[in-house]
Amino acid sequence: MEHKHKLVAAESSQARGTCPNYIIDRLSNLPDEVAHQMLSFLNFKELIRVGSVSKRCRELFLSTPSLVICSPDSGNKQKHLNLLDSFDRFLLHRGDSKIQRLSVSWCISSGLANKIFRMITWIHIAARCNVEVLDFALNGKHIPGTLELPACIFLCGSLRSLLVHMDTILKAPSFTCSSNLQCLTLKSVTMDEGFCKWISSSCKCIKKLQLSYVSIENITIESSSLESFSLVGSSLRGVHLCHLNISCEKLVDIHIEFYKFDSSSKSMNIFAPNLKYLTWIGSILNYHNLGKLTCLEKAEIFLKRKKDDYDFEKIFEALFREGSMQLQFYDISYLSLHAGGVFDDLVPAMVSLLRGMPNLKTLHINSYPRFFGSKSCKFNRKYWKSQNLDFVHRLEEVKIELSNGYNGVEFARYILDHAQNLKKMVIHYPPQQSYVERRLSKSKMISTTSIDYQKRDLHKLKNWSESGTYYRYMIRGKSA
């Protein structure tokens, strides 16, 4: 006879008019691994409810290897204390059972600052229980100005991923030790330069490093194992970075997003011979010092411009002049350009960019309705022809999202007149440009391609974010 665990919930069942004998505890019949996987999606308060269902559920509750505890939504001090007490009792009852993941997210309110030491105790327990993933996030106005994580977490041989998110000064370990960390994420902390030295000297297995709004003037990372590096910051939030130096032979992915960065007094030096992905958002960080980059195959470029912020024509001319990055983009065959539209003030910059990609085969130009008021009627087909863009003869696929004006249409006509290998062209146009099909039909098409016209529903399009003016420069490599 099949064994079934039954819930003892007489009062609630009677209230619903249901016989308790027909209520089956399906969770109790699952293997531990499957049950624990399901429980990993619950926070601690939800786990408490599961643990009260049955004896079997309590066993699963006490042995679950994934623990997520968050401060209550209510600002009630007593509720915060009750949850802290419950978690302390839980850790006491579970003993030294393995903790695979511990995630702490807590808002430190007035009168609870002295409770942080209890959370530091949780880190000690997690290290003793061979934790593999530790996420430690504190927020609020009552966090101590300086916080040093316990030494045991840096000595924990099982730890593979560490996230620290809090507005405080984070001190580096005061000792030399070897760490098995593979992923390190630091957010909103103030770092001393000793932390970078510790990462370079002690984290021999690190593969992913993420720094988000981290206050530090100089970042120098040297690693033989690092594969992914991310840096996000803004001087508007008090983050003042002076120099960034990266030397990582296995690095394949770099994401840099920095706003209001004064490039005249800053520098960035990168040595990454195997780089395949480069995302660059924000101001230009001394593009002369990019170091050695691999040849790349795909590029995606985002421009959100404001006349006084960046001179894109000069930027691209500098990027592609001899001795800079010209040879680096020689193998690019795919380009997706997000520029709001083919506007008068951006066309020279686009030309400089396209001139540096002679082997381009696929070109996508995207536009956004919030920019449709910009001027785009200065550059005709004769202008495009005079630029002698070598890539046009190799083009096989083109998609252009038109905004207002004639620049985009004239560029499309130029392509149709000269792209003998063109196999596919897609034209998206706004409702007010009903003349597009008639105008393009007059082209002296050199290929046999057909054109797919698609009228754009502007009400369904999403605008770009209104926050900030930025320049985003993204390159994807051969494995993309």
Automatic annotation (TrEMBL):
CDD domains: F-box_SF (cd09917). SMART domains: FBOX. It holds the Pfam family LRR_At5g56370. Residues 24-60 form the F-box domain. Signal peptide: none annotated. Gene3D superfamilies: 1.20.1280.50, Ribonuclease Inhibitor. This is F-box domain-containing protein. The lineage of its organism: Eukaryota, Viridiplantae, Streptophyta, Embryophyta, Tracheophyta.
